[in-house]
Write a structure and sequence with these properties.
This protein has 342 residues and is α/β, with parallel strands linked by helices. The chain is built from 11 helices and 14 strands.
Length: 342
């Protein structure tokens, strides 16, 4: 007999298939947008202003503009008309907004029911920005708990703002994220406004991640970031605001989003597979345990880099981590700080 969750899930999937098909005339090559794009577009439509919507979403105006531009390119039509007073929906934009709101509403229903249906007891739910070191610590804890008669562990990946939203909503118990901690960083204010407690884990210099067979590893000196410009840069789709794409070397600014050759991917595995098979590179941190063996990639320091990545975790205010979460935090702290074998 099907559970209520199974019935509702099937209904939502079927409904969304109908909604997506109804947008078919507005799409190119069968490209389907992601829910984050729909959410951001809906907020822009609500405010009638990209600037006001960016403030409400805690993102920068250029970041939001990039996402809207990607969305319009994906579906092959203009959704917004830009004016001096803000933005207005085109006819296609109004039609698109109606379907977007239906999809977002259905997914909110599914998420709400999922929270109620989740198993109690040995449950650990974590969200993370896309660094494999966090994944390896999650694997370690899962192995340690694998002999338990019952458990429900879940790992979700996304941007820093996705992680914050997951913890704030209760979708995840704990979130691991990274950012550049500067005097004008918005993150402390965001944590306070969303009633989240932040704890520092580590501070790490950025590294260049590249194939073990990359030509610049054979030049006889530590290659600089500038030497990589003729080669392709790999980035995550939609994450224009990740500061690892904007670095400073001896006071000179490098905007890697302006690289002449860019490949955009969604997941960590896709990024690492692409790097291992090409001369493309990306920005990360020191190597994780399975990086060389599984992907044939290595990490090298960036000479004279002025930036540091702040890694930490968030929980809802007044909600202490469960036992599995506490073990996970200790493991990840050791891994990021070089206290665990790779």
């Amino acid at each position: 007999m099907q559970s209520l969750f199974d019935v509702l899930y099937k209904k939502i999937v079927e409904t969304n298939e109908i909604l997506i098909k109804s947008l078919g005339k507005m799409m190119m090559g069968g490209t389907i947008m992601n829910l984050k794009q729909l959410e951001y577009f809906s907020v822009v439509a609500q405010y009638g202003s990209i600037n006001k919507a960016a403030q409400a979403l805690y993102v920068s105006q250029p970041h939001l503009s990039h996402i809207l531009q990607d969305l319009e390119e994906d579906i092959g039509t203009a959704l917004l008309t830009r004016t001096k007073k803000g933005v207005q929906l085109t006819e296609e934009g109004r039609h698109f907004l109606q379907h977007s709101q239906k999809i977002l509403g259905e997914m909110n229903q599914l998420q709400g029911l999922f929270h109620k249906q989740e198993r109690s007891g040995n449950t650990f739910r974590v969200s993370m920005t896309k660094f494999s070191h966090t994944m390896e610590s999650f694997i370690d804890i899962l192995n340690q708990w694998s002999q338990e008669p019952e458990l429900s562990f879940r790992l979700n990946e996304g941007s820093s703002m996705d992680v914050i939203a997951d913890v704030e909503s209760g979708y995840s118990d704990l979130g691991v994220l990274h950012f550049e901690y500067t005097p004008d960083s918005p993150f402390p204010r965001i944590f306070e406004e969303k009633k989240l407690e932040y704890r520092h884990l580590s501070e790490i210099r950025p590294h260049i991640v590249l194939s073990q067979n990359h030509p610049l590893l054979r030049v006889g000196h530590a290659p600089t970031l500038g030497e990589f410009r003729p080669y392709g840069f790999v980035r995550y789709i939609g994450e224009y605001e990740d500061f690892t794409y904007n670095l400073s070397i001896n006071g000179v600014h490098y905007d890697l989003d302006d690289s002449p050759k860019i490949a955009s991917v969604y997941g960590r595995a896709s990024l690492l597979h692409l790097i291992s098979a090409t001369d493309f590179y990306t920005i990360g941190i020191q190597e994780f345990g399975r990086q060389a063996g599984c992907y044939g990639c290595t990490s090298i320091p960036i000479p004279d880099c002025d930036n540091k990545l702040e890694f930490g975790y968030i929980v809802r205010l007044g909600t202490p981590p469960c036992r599995a979460a506490a073990e996970f935090i200790k493991n990840l702290s050791g891994r990021l700080n070089g206290q665990l074998p790779r």
